[in-house]
Amino acid sequence: MKKILPLLAIGAVSFGAGAMLPRPAADLPPITVPMLQAAQGLLGLNFTDAQLDSTRRDLEDNRKDYEQLRQAKLPNSVAPTLVFDPVPLRLRQSMLPKAKDDAGKLPPTAKIKLPANRDDLAFYTVRQLSELVRTKQISSEELTQFFLARLKKYDPKLLCVTTLTEELAMQQARQADKEIKAGKYRGPLHGIPFGVKDLFSTKTYKTTWGSVPYKDQMLDEDAAVVTRLREAGGVLVAKFTLGELAMGDVWYGGKTRSPWNITQGSSGSSAGSASAVGAGLVPYAIGTETLGSIVSPSTACGVTGLRPSYGRISRAGAMALSWSMDKVGPLARSAEDCALVFAALVGADARDPATTIVPAGFKYAFDTDIKKLRVGYLKADFDRDYPTKANDQASLEVLRKLGVQLVPLDLQGLPAGELTFLLSTEGAAAFDELTRSGRVTQMVNQGRNAWPNSFRTARFVPAVEYIQAQRVRRQLIEEVDKRMQGFDVYVAPSFGGPNLVITNLTGHPAVVVPNGFRTNGLPSTITFGGQLFEEGKLLALVKAYQDATDFDEKHPPLNF
Questions:
Q1: In the prediction, which pLDDT does 402 show?
Q2: Distance CA 287, CA 264 (A)
């Protein structure tokens, strides 16, 4: 029994004299390496003393989080956010909701002409390029060659590409031209080049997950997003970098750079997708977000990023980091472009159960009268002092001048930070073999805050604490829904307040848009949030903001 007691102390629970009583973490003895040695013997693990020492400090932090979560009142009626799914894949396919293919009409656009300087095409929107291809002013093959040339020219400095898919791209472009010439036009993405974050599988090209242990990995399937964009007529030109296993901007080939200042990283983890779009190497790319991986690189690279509601886009064929938090979304030049791509990707997929329990269709809502929307703003977050406050205040003023009445909305005082160990715990399960085999030591980042140590730390998270945290998360979801009742959209600073963490836990959608610059030369952004599954209204307000400003039209000089 003596060897078991140290393990129980990790969870801040004390057994003695026939009673089980919670003890405050502050009253418990410090977590020590010998304590963890005993604990890992129980769990069948074999981490080194040095690794356990790094883990020890994180476990002290976890213990404080457990103590915080234990203050929550959890009546027996509160279920966890995880729901048991007994339906086998064979049956689920027949039970899928029917998707609505018609997204509706897009707003009219000015007549688009091929520019005299072909280099200007680099920063045309998807909608503009689509019109040029549809009207046969330029072929998909020419456009594809143009963007492939830019990828080859600028990638050596930006380090945003893991694999050029040139052979496939040329095949798809020629097929698109053949179809368009025959009058078989598939829609606004037909013949338009794009790239995907290299955690999406592709049959004939490596899928590296940005990490040394997987840099030569071949997966014999196309991810759902790759398939759906191919069906929409898209042309896959590249697979883009991600920070190792979807954290940060450092991958096995180096650090991906922001095109606005190549001494700065592009942030992550959708590092290459954001960098490539920002530099005009593709008109749009696909990324993912679990806890900021679209919002953060979109900011560093000055692009518009849509993080849709959880479950709206299939993750089949994508690397799993956190099954209950991973979300797929587009990075592009504008809200309108994000809507075009989203419309092609949204819908149920039997291989991703999360997509089978949410609304299947999406309608453009660009004809929305934004003056009739009830728009909130996180007043407490905007009132604090932070580096990009002036840019955000100017954005709020733009909205007011558009006739939007901003109503204070409060998301303060909600559990958020103490729930984030859910992410690393699910990630540790996804990469348990990597950790136990010792191959995790091949990864580039080995610091205390890097994945290897987080995965080891998560091995000591008690199952009860994980499930209790999911129950508190259920309460968070209900409380956020209560506070957001009556609001259509709201505005928030992109960083610093609780919004980013809260909404990634609750699954709410967000659009991050450029709204100025920081002192280091990198762009700043502001975030628009919305109700679950109401991406149409959200994108309509963002489009109105972008029509009234020109930040989305700015692009880096690329003088390197």
A1: 98
A2: 20
Which CATH code is given to the segment(s) 118-416+465-553?
Answer: 3.90.1300.10
506 contacts 499 by C-beta, under 8 angstroms: no
Q: CA 230 to CA 236: how far, in whole Å?
A: 8
- Report which residue type is found at 466: Y
What CA–CA distance (Å, rounded) separates 326 from 311? 9
Contacts 24+ apart (CB under 8 A), 438-444: 439/213, 440/213, 442/212, 442/213, 443/211, 443/212, 443/213, 443/244, 443/245, 444/211, 444/212, 444/244, 444/250, 444/251, 444/252
Of 544, 509, 547, the residue nearest 295 (C-alpha): 509
Chain segment 37-64, per-residue pLDDT in tens: 999 999 999 999 999 999 999 999 999 9
pLDDT value for 26: 66
Residue found under tokens 């064979």: 90
What residues have CB less than 8 Å from 507, skipping those under 6 apart?
A: 309, 310, 311, 327, 477, 532
If you write DSSP's letter for every residue of 108-129 in order, what string do you get? Answer: P-PPP---SSGGGGGG--HHHH
Q: Is 170 exposed, middle or buried (0-12, 13-18, 19+ CB in 10 A)?
A: middle
